[in-house]
Amino acid sequence: MSRILAFAVTASLAFSEPYNTFDGPGHPTCNDVAGVYDPSTAANTSTPCDTMCSDDPSTIIIRTENVNQIANFSLEPSAEDGSVVIEAGVTFFQLADYLHQRNASIGYALVSWNITLAASVAMGAHRSSLRQDSMVASGALEVHIIDGSGNIRVVKRDENDDQWLAASTSLGLLGVIARMKFKIYLDFKVYADQKILAENDVLNGDIYGLIFPYATANFWCQQGFQSTFSVTKTEADTALGLLNAGANSSFFNSLAETTFFSLWSFPNFREKTNNLPLITCLVLKRIREAFDYELEVNGKQMTSTYRSGINIKFGKPYFDLLGQVTYGTADGADWSKGAMMFDFPTFRPTVGDGKRFNEPFYPMLATTLVNEFPCRPHWTKNIRGVFEQSKKNIDPDHLARFKVVKDDFDS
Ligand SMILES: Cc1cc2nc3c(=O)[nH]c(=O)nc-3n(C[C@H](O)[C@H](O)[C@H](O)COP(=O)(O)OP(=O)(O)OC[C@H]3O[C@@H](n4cnc5c(N)ncnc54)[C@H](O)[C@@H]3O)c2cc1C
């Protein structure tokens, strides 16, 4: 997908080698691109480019990192809310800093991490909540998109307008989001808590009742933990060695899990005393079945080998055409209480054939869930094989309406 963009290109770099993700060499985001450009602001010029590689080696990547101005702050002390305008490369951290200095926040739409709000809106990113709007896009008031002809099109929030419903989760297919007008609020404090639940209380409990009362809440399973941390090079090398040893051994995977779990301390520490608490929910019971099968029949224990363990998130219903928590689908599935997101990141060994210890398990689990439940893609986290399978679970009318808007923006 290449398009004419209205970004002023201030520096360009010819690329004949892989363009890596943040993880560095060995983790290419693009194997073959024609160039990487670093625009510094959105303006009128004609440069064919995209924000992510496609299969076309003539694609030119634009890095939005330096397009990061924040302007038009508006929030009266007595007002319920206000707004601010942010450019494509503004990250959550940048915006949080900027707003904090002005006694403001973007409320519950914050996902955190060093990722951009524009890409989060494009990909339908969300945090975990059944009570508050969970989509990052729910905070967007206007999305300014550079269409296929290089024009900036301002799409304003309007639930009755298919342009808005497509722009709300566009996957970048309408064009690059150059800037957004975002809703802001007076700053407020939240308190954090963690509870260890007995497996039985969770398995046979009321999952909606457990999650709904909180502004944000999720479940962490197995010896799961979420840590925001920095490590030294030596620590990182040791961890890498341990994780790579786990490519052929569940012993090393379990050792890594236990070691990381005991090394990182409160408040990043997420204690779990049970092996795998599961919720009274068919999807999760099915996953539990698959886990048990992997051990009993294939003799391979499942462990969580990535930083965050297994994370189960929840999303309040929010209507747009391709969003993860949308509703009103022709399959008749009941989304009225929201959607559940099973997030199981794993470490892919950087040695040998790069295959994980339980390699066949992961695609098998995805196929099982997609075929047995109305599972839709988690756009930010799945891989192409999963998208291809789960496409059948996206409402055909939503897809058709999206395509009309897409063709209008980028023929
Ligand atoms: C540690 C971590 C935790 C995360 N937690 C969550 C979570 O809790 N919930 C969740 O939903 N996601 C989560 N994610 C996923 C994250 O939300 C997405 O990967 C997000 O899209 C990353 O933004 P980025 O700026 O790195 O975008 P990139 O990875 O650079 O781009 C992602 C996609 O967006 C497109 N894109 C980028 N910029 C634009 C633009 N300006 N206009 C149009 N399209 C654009 C790209 O072409 C690409 O397809 C997490 C990611 C990480 C690394």
From TrEMBL:
* Record bears the keyword Signal: yes
Please provide an example of a Pfam family that matches this protein in its UniProt record: FAD_binding_4
UniProt-listed PROSITE patterns: FAD_PCMH
Molecular function via GO: D-arabinono-1,4-lactone oxidase activity; FAD binding
Q: Which UniProt keywords apply?
A: Signal
Per the record, GO CC terms?
mitochondrion
Where on the tree of life does the source sit, at the highest rank?
A: Eukaryota
Task: Keyword check for Signal, yes or no.
Answer: yes
Q: Where is the signal peptide?
A: 1-16
Q: List each copy of the FAD-binding PCMH-type domain by range.
A: 7-187
Descriptive protein name: FAD-binding PCMH-type domain-containing protein
